[in-house]
Amino acid sequence: MLCKIGEVEVWRILEINGPFLTPEELFPTAGPDVRRIVEEHVEGGVCVRSGRLILPVQGFLLKTPSHTILVDSCVGNDKTVPGTPDWHKRSDTRFMAALTAAGVGTDDIDYVLCTHLHPDHVGWNTRLEDGRWVPTFPNARYLLPAADEDVQRARHADLYVESVLPVIEAGQAELVEAGHMLGDHVTLVPTPGHTHGHVSVKVKSGNHEALITGDAMHSTVQCRYPDWHFIYDADAEMAVASRRRLLEQASETGCVVLGSHFALPSFGHVRSDRDAFLWEDRLWRKS
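Predicted structure:
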């Protein structure tokens, strides 16, 4: 177990932890010193050999008193992602092994909650069975941001055909808006910008609270530099505004922050520091 938020257990479901793109590629407006800054703020965050940022791909499993919820389903196997070779046509057992280690099987998931519809957040929505894409979690309701589904349906690209449409056709999908509540402990928080329908996830139990960022942030260095644009944000300025709101909320409440792509251990706290913020990991070590 990664941590406990009141009565809610949080488990990390890690699929990939390796180099992705260089800091210069990921943060194109950050200036010529971006690599040095990232290295100063994220210990071991840049691969020495390749110069690329180490970017985990992971979901979070929430065990509430009422439901078992998977937040984001990572890349998956056999998926068509030619633009990212490490994600393309994978055949790997790590994601499923992590679920097993958390004491959960595919039949045990009540909800799959996708923060947005990008390849590394929807992949295990489905699996390939006898040449057909079928829902991986047969008893789950899949909560998909409605605005993102509109965009992906219009594109009708591999992502939609392989990882979204099959759960809709199976009658297991719910198109939801920000503010949607899932039981007594989980609420979708609007953080548009990375995609227009992007949501982060608030977990609350008693006096304890956590925020799962999704892709509102990709690195803890963005606490100090929240105005840095990220290469894959659909609306960079909207993403900056959402990121700042999320960081302000986290610093005001003192909640646990779980970063979907933050360098491991990927969880800690945020506190305000003049016009920016500081990241402190779960052991309260400043970075």
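Summary: The mean pLDDT is 96.
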